[in-house]
């Protein structure tokens, strides 16, 4: 989309939309854009994204009724919208494709459609699963799971599900060997909220630890990265100087969090809690020991 037409703007006519449609060969195949197809797409945009497209009767032009619906939409809806918008720009600029480098899609995506179908219909799923920590090709576990939610982290898809009477557990889709949808139904608890479930976590490891106040001292240039892309939604900047900033968080400590802090190297210092500071010190000593002296 070259322009987002909002309420109050002149909008865009169906004739202008049709020209843009025909210009994009991958969408149109060179065919015209029938009014019936446009109306179906207009309805789909409302059903999928919750975005209402209105019409100025005096000019018969179309516009987005409330542009805030895009920025205020859920993370999933916003992700779909932005992905489609970027894909459309790339398709319209075929000569730039070799100059636009994208990361690979999250791994495990071949199982997504089956899991989404089961989640939508409230069906159990079964799959064979091979964790990374088991060696050999002959080992796998069989699971019969209620699919609760999906999450992406570090370019991998993860399923949050319930297996029998066990607590909720995370399964990495790139470790699935196969998957089937069962006839057996399940009912998602009415009070379950995926965002709330992960709200005090960084990443996907579900620590049993209670959330803790965590303070980081970060060098000034690294702080710019955290301001533009917060480490966690609870992030607050408590102090800002010419040399460093201090950020606070309220979250559970986990392997994922520690690994993320390690990627910042010497630009970050854990101020509190003492337990996390000690763990970072221990890991730092191990790293130093591994790199001490000449390589053999």
Question: Helices, strands, pairings?
Answer:
Layout (H helix, E strand, L loop, with lengths): L11 E2 H10 L1 H4 L6 H15 L3 E4 L4 E4 L3 H4 L3 H18 L19 H10 L1 E7 L11 E13 L2 E8 L5 E4 L7 E6 L8 H5 L13 E8 H9 L7 E5 L3 E8 L3 H9 L4 E5 L1 H17 L6
Antiparallel strand pairs: 1-3, 2-3, 4-5, 4-8, 5-6, 6-7, 9-11, 9-12, 10-11
Q: What structural class results from the helix and strand content?
A: alpha+beta
- As residue ranges, the low-confidence spans are none
The number of helical elements comes to 10
Q: Please indicate the count of domains.
A: 3
- Hey, roughly how much beta strand do the residues contain? 25-35%
Name of the CATH first level of the largest domain: Mainly Beta
Annotation, overall tally of beta strands: 12
Q: Radius of gyration over alpha carbons?
A: 24 Å
Distance between the termini: 57 Å
Estimate the helix proportion, in percent: 25-40%
* Average pLDDT over all residues: 84
Level-2 CATH architecture of the largest domain:
Roll
CATH topology of the largest domain: SH3 type barrels
For the largest beta-sheet, the strand count, sense and barrel status come to: 5 strands, antiparallel
What's the shape?
globular
Helix and strand run: EHHHEEHHHEEEEEHEHEEHEH
Strand order of the largest sheet: 7-6-5-4-8
């Amino acid at each position: 989309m070259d322009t987002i037409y909002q309420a109050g703007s002149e909008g865009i006519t169906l004739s202008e939309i049709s020209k843009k449609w025909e210009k994009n060969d991958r969408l149109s195949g060179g065919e015209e854009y029938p009014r019936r197809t446009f109306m179906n797409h207009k309805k789909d945009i409302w059903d999928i994204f919750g975005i209402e497209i209105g019409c100025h009767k005096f000019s018969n032009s179309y516009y987005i009724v409330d542009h805030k619906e895009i920025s205020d939409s859920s993370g999933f809806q916003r992700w779909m919208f932005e992905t489609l918008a970027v894909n459309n720009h790339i398709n319209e600029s075929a000569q730039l494709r070799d100059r636009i480098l994208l990361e690979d899609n999250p791994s495990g995506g071949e199982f997504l459609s089956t899991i989404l179908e089961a989640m939508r219909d409230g069906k159990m799923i079964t799959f064979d699963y091979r964790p990374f920590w088991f060696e050999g090709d002959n080992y796998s576990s069989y699971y019969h799971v209620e699919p609760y939610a999906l999450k992406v982290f570090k370019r991998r898809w993860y399923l949050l599900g319930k297996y029998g009477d066990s607590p909720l557990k995370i399964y990495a889709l790139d470790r699935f060997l196969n998957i089937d949808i069962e006839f057996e139904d399940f009912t998602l608890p009415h009070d379950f909220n995926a965002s709330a479930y992960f709200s005090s976590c960084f990443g996907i490891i579900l620590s049993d630890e209670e959330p803790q106040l965590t303070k980081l001292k970060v060098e000034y240039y690294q702080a710019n990265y955290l301001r533009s892309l917060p480490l966690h939604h609870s992030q607050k900047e408590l102090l800002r100087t010419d040399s460093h900033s201090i950020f606070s968080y309220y979250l559970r400590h986990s392997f994922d969090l520690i690994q993320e802090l390690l990627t910042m190297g010497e630009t970050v210092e854990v101020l509190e809690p003492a337990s996390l500071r000690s763990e970072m010190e221990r890991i730092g000593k191990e790293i130093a020991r591994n790199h001490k002296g000449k390589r053999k």
